[in-house]
Amino acid sequence: MIGAEQLALMKPSAILVGISRGGIIDETALVDALSSGRLAAAALDVFETEPLPKDSPLWDIPNLIIVPHAAGGSQYEAAAIRGIFRENVERFVRGDFPLRNEVSKQRGY
Predict the structure, then answer these.
(1) Which stretch of DSSP H or E encloses residue 6?
(2) 79-93, pLDDT tens digit by residue?
(3) Are the C-beta atoms of residues 46 and 20 closer than 8 Å to each other?
(4) Distances in whole angstroms, Cα of residue 57 to Cα of each of 54, 64, 76, 88
(5) I want to staple 10 with a disulfide (CB 3.0 to 4.6 A). Which of 14, 15, 49, 75 is the partner?
(6) pTM over 0.70
(7) Residue 66 bridge partners (DSSP)
(8) Known catalytic residues?
(9) Burial of 48 by CB count in 10 Å (0-12 exposed, 13-18 middle, 19+ buried)?
(10) Domains of the chain (ranges plus CATH)?
């Protein structure tokens, strides 16, 4: 449904989000559009082959966020979590509250 022709109609500043079914987006055309700058970025939750094969060229596209078919994380998630944890340990030791992303029981979030 979304191939080279449809991608070419998008603005170069567009971001494509694929969360429906694998195979809807032509992955080869997407790699070409992202690599050439004809598309600013993309995020995919589904793929033609799942799990996404280790040798898929999609892994090497810097302006593509890949999340598991649960849309709960990305290839950047672990590093981000470690960074927040490290920052919170340092804040805790200094007594610098609230911590980053701390849940407020009074506010309910």
Answers:
(1) helix 4-8
(2) 999 999 999 999 999
(3) yes
(4) 9, 11, 17, 36
(5) 14
(6) no
(7) 44
(8) 21, 50, 69
(9) middle
(10) 4-69 (3.40.50.720), 76-109 (no CATH)
